[in-house]
Amino acid sequence: MEFDTKVALVVRDDLASWQKLNVTAFLATGIAASAPEAIGIPYEDANGRQYAALLRQPVMVYGGDSAGLLRAFQQGQQRELTIAVYVKAMFSTGNDEDNRAAFLAEPADQPDLVGIALRGPKKMVDKALKGLSLHP
User: pTM above 0.90?
Assistant: First the structure.
């Protein structure tokens, strides 16, 4: 199936494994929350038990350094893509309110990003990701 939108996560490649997984999970929820039209219908097993719905399209995960993340972030802003963010200071918080305060304290043009998620027209997302590679 071909999609006209793309969902891509970019995670800093120098993080510990648990941090990469944590950031990936948070960013995916940000995209899901901002794009209810991208969510499929709930799953059901052969016994009729219900399970949560998932995004209807693949989520591509890229790796990059700080400069690559910042460039993709800025390109995403210029292209008015949906962006979810995770900054380094959020590792030291324990709740959503403190996460939002940590992000608000960051320099608006150069936050200390450890991960971003982008969603929008496929060509625009691809242009924002130029130079980044899929996460190994």
Answer: yes
pLDDT tens-digit readout, 24-55: 999 999 999 999 999 999 999 999 999 999 99
Range of the domain at 61: 5-134
128/77 Cα distance (integer angstroms): 9
CB within 8 A of 88, min separation 6: which ones? 112, 113, 114
Phi, psi for residue 39 in degrees, rounded to 5: -90, 135
Neighbours of 120 (CB within 10 A): 20
Angle, alpha carbons 82-18-7 (nearest 5°): 20
Which CATH number does the domain housing residue 125 bear?
3.40.1490.10
Q: How many domains does the chain have?
A: 1
How far does Cα 61 stand from its chain's mean position?
Answer: 8
Amino acid at 95: N
Amino acid at site 120 = G
